[in-house]
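sorry for the late reply, my laptop died twice this morning and i had to redo everyting from scratch. anyway the thing you sent over, i finally got around to it. pasting the sequence first so we're on the same page, its 385 residues, then the predicted structure underneath. double check i copied it right bc i was rushing
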Amino acid sequence: MRKWRRPARMRFTLLYGAMFMLSGVVLLVIANLVGLGGTQVSRTTFPGAPPVTLAAANDHIASLQAQLSDTHTAQLRQLLIGSAVALAVMAVVSVVMGRVIAGRVLRPLRVITAATRRISADNLHERLAAQGPADEVKDLADTIDGLLERLESSFAAQRRFVANASHELRTPLTTMRASLDVAMAKPEPVPAQTAGLADRLRTELDQIDRLLDGFLMLARAQHGALTDRTVLSLGRLASAALEARAADVTAKSLTVHADADDGAWTQGNGTLLARMIDNVIDNAITHNHHGGRIHLATTTEGATARLVVETGGRLLDQEQVDRLAQPFQRLGADRTRSGDGSGLGLSIVAAIAAAHDGALDLRARPEGGLRAAISLPVATARVPA
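ok and here's the structure:
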C-alpha cells in the first residue's frame, strides 16, 4: 500500500501548531501552579476590640476558612475553564497562522517547481531567474538555472554532432558508390563473384544511407524548429502513402481496408508529417506476414485528429512494444535482422508527433499484430496544401 503523502506545507503547519500549543500548555501550567500556591489565613487582633471567648473565636475562624476555601475553589474552577477555552481558541488560531506562515515560506519553492515543470527539451533556453534575497531558495534556483544551461549546451552539441557527422559521412558513401559503378561498368567481363560482392556492397551502402537519413530526420524532429507550417489532411497523406507502396502490398498479398476521414486536418511541417505517415505505413507492410491485413482509419475527436494503423500478425509482448518508440529497438527476432530497416522508423514517428504537440501510442492487439495510433491537434482552418 502506498504511504500517506504529507506535503511540506502540512508538516510545517503541524510543526508550528504543535510548538505553539506546547508553549501555551507550559505557560498555563506555570500560571495554575502559581495560583495553586495556597492561601494563608492570618489572625490579627485589633487594639480596643471587645474580648471574645475562645469557642466563639474558633467558630468564627472555621466559618471564615470555609468561605475562603469555597471562594478559592470557585476561582480555581473559573481559572481552569478559562484556560481550557483560551487553549482551544489559540489551538485553532495557531493552526491557521501556521498554515499561512508555511504557505508564505514555501511559496518560492512552488514557483520554482512550476517553472521547472514547464521547461522541457524543447525550451531549455528558459531560466527560472529567481528574484529576492540571497538565501537558500535563491541558491536552489540558481543551481537549477546552471543545470539547465549545461543541458542546453549538451543538447546543442549533440544536434551539431549528429548533423555534421551525417553530412560528412555522405561524401565517402557517394564516392564508394561511384567507384563501384565505375568498376562494374568496365568493358572487360566481371567475374560473378565480384558482381555479387558489388551488389552486396551497394545494399549495405543503401542501408547506411537510410540510417544517416534517419539520423538527420530524428535530429530535426526532436530539436528542429518547425517554421514552414501548413494545413494537411491526414487521410490524404495516408492514401498517398498507400498508393506509393501498392507494389509492396501486392507482393505480400496484403488486404488493405482504409477508412480515411477527410475531415482529419492538422497543421505542421509537410515534409515531417509525410515522413511520419510513410514510416507508419512502411512498418505496417514490412513487419506484416504474407497474406495479412492492414486497417487504416483517420478520425477527429474534439480537438484531436487521429490516425490509426492496425496490422495482423503474431502475438506481441506489450513490454517490448512500449520500447519500439526508442531508437534501434526491434521486436524479438527482428533485432537480429540487418537488412530490414534501421530501427529508427517508429522513433522518428514518435519524435515528429511530439514536435507537433501530438503523441504516438503503440498497443499489442489481443488477436495478434500491432496497433499504432498517432494523435495530433486539429487545424483551426482547413485549407488544402
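DSSP finds nine helices and seven strands in the chain.
thats about all i looked at so far, will dig more tmrw
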